[in-house]
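Summary for the steering committee. The consortium agreed at its last meeting that each partner would contribute one worked example illustrating the joint modelling workflow. Our contribution is presented below. We chose a case with several input lines so that the handling of multiple components could be demonstrated. No manual editing was applied between input and output; the record is shown as generated.
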Amino acid sequence: MHENVFIMDHPLIQHKLSILRDERTGSKQFRELISEIAMLMCYESTRDLPTREVETKTPITVAKTRVLAGRKMAFVPILRAGLGMVDGVLSLIPAAKVGHIGMYRDPETHKPIDYYCKLPADLNERDVFVLDPMLATGGSAIDAVTRIKEFSPKRIKFMCIIAAPEGVKAFTEAHPDVPVYCAGLDECLNEHCYIVPGLGDAGDRIFGTK
Ligand code: PRP
Ligand code: URA
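What follows is the complete predicted structure of the assembly.
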């Protein structure tokens, strides 16, 4: 496994992922689970954020405490399914800005087609978390990160919920400098480039479109 790939197999994440995969899980619960898993992954993947010491007056005395060292953040979901992860990560980091990249896979070629991009103007001052629940062939994530790099952010991390080995390989070859955080590394892709065992079509399950 590439040194920049981190599998977040915390028991709470694995439990929620198991329900997420279940074909009987409806859209309401599916949305809630995606959001909760994204929040837990955000907690884990921000471990390396720098902090600085401040003085805080408690009701008892003055204490030396630590706060985040003014790091500016941005979350960039890949539409549509990445939208499902935004609420969860914003619940931990409400001051972050949010950009959007719109992409869908051509059903025949499975290549990503981009249709929208709106990113915070000051992205060069920010750490960016790119969000998409599924890393299948890797095409969408690779193109999204390539686009984001044009804005020279300070750092980029990619956060997905399920990854296929094919996608991890392609992504880490294209962007070896971008850490990948995922909750589950699955077996393979099928002939339609869906992740096996996966969870089906994430966008359709979040938005109830099938
Ligand atoms: C899904 C998913 C990723 C992409 C992953 O989006 O949310 O963006 O496929 O596949 P890849 O790694 O092979 O590029 P989809 O194309 O279904 O669009 P949608 O989210 O709008 O439904
Ligand atoms: N996109 C999805 O939503 N699911 C997959 O398994 C692959 C791509």
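The chain has one domain: 5-207. The mean pLDDT is 96.
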